[in-house]
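step=encode ok
step=design start
structure_in=
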């Protein structure tokens, strides 16, 4: 009975989120100024090192190769050159580099390498909290898509540990889906029930 009820609720909310796509962190901070603004916003909570101009320039080269020339191999080659010098890079610079790797692999539909790269992003500390949270959510989505349900739950819980506000409905739906696929029906029912309640409170009641 619990399994049937949970499946019904999942189906109802799945329709509401049917148009949603996997979100991945943007490939490149738009400019040094934006990077510094993001860093400044983190000062109250964590001290984040600077993204230096010389590293930014190399990442921008990779972006140009991937976006403008459409040359994925060249973009990866540039990033590997940067990685070879990672011993001299700070945590934020390494995180941005691995974010680039992940973005390029994701766009090239190499999801295994994309997951590996995004996982390396959140291994680097300290990095801007918003950047870390965005990456954690992307990792949860990608792992769900790849059938890695335990990892999906782990990354969502890491996201929740950093979050200071209400947990969004989409997070609860993804967590419920992961529990359901793991045959943990009681946990799935709890999270999907919360998601439905939040959904209704927002005035978006799913059809039965």
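sequence_out=
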């Amino acid at each position: 009975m619990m399994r049937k009820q949970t499946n019904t609720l999942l189906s109802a909310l799945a329709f509401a989120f049917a148009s949603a796509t996997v979100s991945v962190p943007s490939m490149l901070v738009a400019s040094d100024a934006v990077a510094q603004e993001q860093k400044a916003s983190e000062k109250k909570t964590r001290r984040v090192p600077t993204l230096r101009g010389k590293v930014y320039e190399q990442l921008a080269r990779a972006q140009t190769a991937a976006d403008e020339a459409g040359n994925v191999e060249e973009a990866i080659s540039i990033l590997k050159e940067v990685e070879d010098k990672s011993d001299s890079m700070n945590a934020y610079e390494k995180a941005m580099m691995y974010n680039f790797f992940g973005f390029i692999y994701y766009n090239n539909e190499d999801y295994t390498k994309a997951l590996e790269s995004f996982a390396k992003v959140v291994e680097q500390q300290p990095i801007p909290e918003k950047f870390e949270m965005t990456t954690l959510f992307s990792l949860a989505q990608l792992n769900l898509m790849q059938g890695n349900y335990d990892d999906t739950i782990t990354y969502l819980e890491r996201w929740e540990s950093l979050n200071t506000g209400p947990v969004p409905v989409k997070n609860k739906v993804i967590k419920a889906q992961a529990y359901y696929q793991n045959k943990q029906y009681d946990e799935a029912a709890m999270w999907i029930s919360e998601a439905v309640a939040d959904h209704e409170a927002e005035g978006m009641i799913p059809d039965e």
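step=design ok
step=annotate ok -> The radius of gyration is 19 Å.
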